[in-house]
Amino acid sequence: MLSGRAAALLPRCDFPPRDTAIACAVSGGPDSLALLALARAAGLEATAYHVDHGLRPGSEHEADVVRAQAAALGAGFVALRVECAPGPNLEARARAARYGALPPDVATGHTADDQAETVLLNLLRGAAGDGLAGMRAGTRHPLLGLRRRETEALAHSLDLPVVHDPSNDSPAHRRNRVRHELLPLAAAIAGRDLAPVIARQARLLADESALLDALAAELDACSAAELASAPAPLARRAVRRAARAVLGGGHPLDAAATERVLAVARGESVACQLPGGGRVARSRGRLFYVPGPFLAAGGPSAAPE
Q1: How many CB atoms lie within 10 A of CB 123?
Q2: Domains of the chain
Q3: 165 contacts 86 by C-beta, under 8 angstroms
Q4: Bridge partners (DSSP) listed for residue 124
Q5: Which residues contact 82 (CB under 8 A, 6 or more apart)?
Q6: pLDDT tens, 220-238?
Q7: Contacts of 236 (CB under 8 A, 6+ apart)
């Protein structure tokens, strides 16, 4: 099973040790099929998870394609279906539904090209250092060291039937415009291939982000005094970490909400609202991160450990 092309790519992948079980998100596109093939070539007990969003006529047949390829590669197969009605923010809602159905440790076939697109999308969204660090390298994203052209060439060399998703060509999705318009234009202006440059910057920012996270973890995000006296970058991280722990997942607090919390810590206000209906209140030098509608008397409150 270890073809010459796969053997050449494996040293640049971040797979777990041989004989480890791995869940692979496989849409049927060349990147995800290459992920499955490389996982098997690395000696992993791979299972392909295919998610049908039901958004296109005949999409249910794509699971059959993935099932057949998983069997040919000696991998397991699991078919999942999620409901995602057409409407606003379809791309984001479909992504949330997909990852809600997939195993939490699922590996994806994102490449360095996807990383570059993600960094630019996060830049357009106004993300700070964490967002500009993109996807973190590791077993969740084992192909970030590869280029899209390499995964496509591997799928072709193994004669893997590829599913083409027409939504990947639609300018209605912002990622497609970044892929087909922004990145080529930026590369033309720079006079160089920018995907590896952006991916390398993301790796450096990820290292710096990890260091700041470790330093921020030493702060008590419920102590108004500690937050008020800490360097601003660490205080912001501590607040975002605490808010996520209490209020749940999704994007971290935006800059405006984070600054409102720090204003509470500095004594400039006694409480503030957070996105999603949460609230932060100060009492006797302590900050309380409250999920949901705030009740002035006897309401729910929580603070991170």
Answers
A1: 14
A2: 4-111+146-169 (3.40.50.620), 112-138+174-216 (no CATH), 219-290 (3.30.465.60)
A3: no
A4: none
A5: 51, 52, 53, 54, 94, 97, 98, 100, 101
A6: 999 999 999 999 999 999 9
A7: 258, 262
Which residue from 109, 101, 98, 102 is spatially nearest to 140, judged by alpha carbons? 109
Residue 145, H or E segment: none
Say how far apart CA 296 and CA 96 lie, in whole Å. 33
Q: Do residues 245 and 236 make contact, with C-beta atoms less than 8 angstroms apart?
A: no
Note the pLDDT tens digit of each residue in 14-32: 999 999 999 999 999 999 9
**C-alpha–C-alpha distance, residues 254 and 271, integer Å:** 17
Per DSSP, the three-state class of 45 is strand
- Two tokens, residue 243: 């808010």
Name residues whose C-beta falls within 8 Å of residue 3's C-beta, 6 or more positions apart in sequence: 41, 154, 157, 158
The model carries a pTM of: 0.84
